[in-house]
Amino acid sequence: MPDLxxxxxxxxxxxxAFCLGSCLVRAFWxxxxxxxxxxxxxxxxxxxxxx
Length: 51
Prior knowledge:
The chain has 51 residues and is mainly α. It contains 1 helix and no strands. The protein has one helix at 4-39. The model has no long low-confidence stretch (mean pLDDT 84).
C-alpha cells in the first residue's frame, strides 16, 4: 500500500499546478485582449463625411 502522505502531497501538487496554470492562461488571455483593443482603430477618431 502506498504511503498516504505521498498521495496527498501529489494531489496537492497537481491542484496547485492546475491553479497556477489556469491563472497564467487567464493573465495572458487578458493581456492579448487588451493589446487587441489597443491596436484596433478607434471609431471616435474616424471621421465620416456626409454629403
